[in-house]
Every structure is written in C-alpha cells, then in structure tokens.
UniProtKB/TrEMBL annotation:
Belongs to the metallo-dependent hydrolases superfamily. Adenosine and AMP deaminases family. The keyword Ion transport does not apply. Its EC number is 3.5.4.4. This is Adenosine deaminase. Keywords: Hydrolase, Metal-binding, Zinc. Its cofactor is Zn(2+). PANTHER family: ADENINE DEAMINASE. It comes from Occallatibacter riparius. It comes from the Bacteria. SUPFAM superfamilies: Metallo-dependent hydrolases.
C-alpha cells in the first residue's frame, strides 16, 4: 500500500474541479475568524461547521466558511494555503473555481469590489508558480439559483478582466441544480465562448440525466459531477463520442448523500466504457479527502491498477485547459513514472 501511495504522489496530476472556498481547513478558518469576528471561533467550533448530513447541510456550511472571507488578504491566504497542499500531493496544475457570484451578492452587487480581491488571489498564484512550480487557472463561478442578472455580472466581469489576466481561463455554473437548470444561461455561455473563455458546468449531481443533456446543449465543454449519466446508456455513448471530460468527485458525492458509497460510484463504469473521466476533490476541507486520497480510494475501493491510475492522471492533463505543448510535456512525464 505504501508503494501505491508513493506512486500516486509522484504522478504529475491536474485538479480540475476544486472550489477555493472548499479548501479552507478549520485551522485557517479560525485564523480568519480571529481577524473578523467579535467572538472568534474556537478550533472545536470551526471543526463542527464541517460536519453535515446532506447536500443542503453542505451548502449551509459552505456559506458559513465563505462569510469569513472578507478582503484581499483573506483570499490570498486561502489561495496560498491551497497551493501548498496541492504541491504536497504531486499536483502540477489546478483550475480553481472562485465563487464570484457569492462575492457580488454579499458586497451589494458592486462589481468593482472583486478586483482588489482578485489581486490578492493573483499574488498567491504568482508565488505558487515561483516557489512551488504549480500553475493555477481561475474559473469564475456564477450561482445558478441566484438571479440571471447576478450571473450576468459574473460572466461579464470574467470577459472584462480576461483582457488583463490570462489566468482567468473560464466560467462555471455552480449552486443548487434542483432550483435552476442550464437553459436560462445559454446566451451568457455564448458571450463567454465568443470572448475566448472556456465553459464548465455542474450538472447531474442532484438532478437526473436530462440536466446533463441540457448542460451539453448550451455548449458546456466539461461537466462537473455527471453522477446521473449512469442512468442513461444513450447519454453515456454521447459523452464518449463527444470525448466530453467529466470532473468526478466521488467522496464529495458520498458525503453529500447523493451517492451511497465510494464502491458504488460510477467512476469505474465510466472509465471502463472509455469516457474521459478525471478525479477531483471538489471541497477537500469539507469532505476529508484530497486528490491524493481520491486516487488511493480508486485503488482500494474500485480496484484501479497502477496503469489505470496513470491513465487517470493523463486524463486530468488532457481534460485541462492548458496549452497543447504543456499537455504533451506533462503526459510524457506521467508515462515516465515507474
């Protein structure tokens, strides 16, 4: 088992479905609370926030944590701590969701409030590249169950800021799928695509396969979760033919109660069918399993061999938004790992 753990750590990997806010560990939350709360959280109180029973409970916990991200220094701290942990796992590249939609709503719809926050994130990104050798891209995440107008602010801010920051690689649509699908965002996706942004979408986590079809129909290039695709054989074939990357998050799905167990997660079926699947941790501080842990669980719970784990790592690079020359370089490195 130690040999497999060492092999996983040495594999160059990309993480493609990772929420910045979900990387904030209880100790960092205490530090943020000391900065901002009149009565700061204790370590025990912080840890209690991360214990929840279902998806709705997770959303409540996520909000409690993000409430304590106030200014640029807070976001810089969160991003730097995230980058340190990623590098320790052999992750060489990450494409990180930032809940810009949440920031706008909490800052009274002021689009300009985000730019100082983003400057803090950029400081951490540049430092991570320089000191840790890890590359980071940012994905601006709108919240589907807020209003369409609020989502438009997020999309258009990404378009505006991408002119200056090439690290802003794409847009995403998170939030509660049960309350809003993808179709209302069709025009915004088209605007983003025309501006050169890449298109991701959370779909099929808490909703049936039709939600994934809807996400594909508006132009989504990568699908986050895609759990319910397993219920529709025609959809699985379509995903295979399209070579649509799937950002799978097994531990997340188990912890939020949308999947019964790791062993029952459709990762293995998707992989065996030849779909372009990637492993991701989603919100590792909340779910107690980072990307290294997800690879190990794929080995112990679903019997993934070393060669299959290598393929998952290659998939993560292939499905990333990195330039082709960088993909080729990392893929060659992956193949060289013994």
């Amino acid at each position: 088992m130690n040999d497999v753990a060492d092999f996983i750590r040495r594999l160059p990997k990309a993480e493609l479905h990772l929420h910045l806010e979900g990387t904030i560990a209880p100790a960092t939350l205490v530090e943020l609370s000391q900065r901002h709360d009149r009565e700061p959280l204790t370590q025990a109180e912080a840890e209690a926030l991360y214990r929840f029973q279902d998806f709705s409970g997770f959303l409540d916990a996520f909000k409690a944590v993000t409430n304590r991200l106030v200014g640029p220094a807070d976001y810089e701290l969160a991003a730097w701590r995230m980058a340190q942990r990623l590098a320790q796992q052999g992750i060489v590249h990450a494409e990180v969701y930032i809940s810009v939609g949440v920031i706008y709503v909490w800052r009274n719809h002021d689009p300009e409030c985000f730019e100082p926050i983003f400057a803090g994130l950029e400081q951490a990104r540049v430092r991570a590249q320089r000191e840790l050798g890890i590359s980071l891209y940012w994905i601006f995440d709108a919240v589907r169950h807020f209003t369409l107008e609020e989502a438009a602010r997020v999309f258009r801010k990404a378009i505006e800021m991408r002119c200056e920051y090439t690290s802003i690689i794409g847009i995403g649509l998170g939030g509660d799928e049960r309350r809003c699908g993808s179709e209302p965002f069709r025009e915004l996706y088209a605007e983003a695509r025309a501006a050169g942004l890449r298109l991701t979408n959370h779909a099929g986590e808490t909703t049936p396969p039709e939600a994934i079809r809807e996400a594909l129909a508006i132009g989504s290039e990568r699908i986050g979760h895609a759990l319910s695709a397993v219920q529709d054989s025609e959809l699985l074939e379509e995903l295979k033919v399209r070579s649509t990357p799937l950002e799978l998050n097994p531990t997340s799905n188990v912890r939020t109660g949308v999947c019964a167990s790791w062993a029952e997660h459709p990762l293995r079926r998707y992989f065996d069918l030849g779909l372009l699947v990637t492993l991701n941790s989603d919100d590792p501080a909340f779910f107690g399993s980072d990307l290294e842990g997800e690879y190990m669980l794929a080995h112990t719970e679903q019997g993934f061999t070393r060669d299959e784990l290598r393929r998952l790592a290659s998939n993560s690079i292939e499905a990333s938004f990195l330039p082709e020359v960088e993909k080729a370089s990392w893929t060659a490195r992956i193949e060289s790992i013994g």
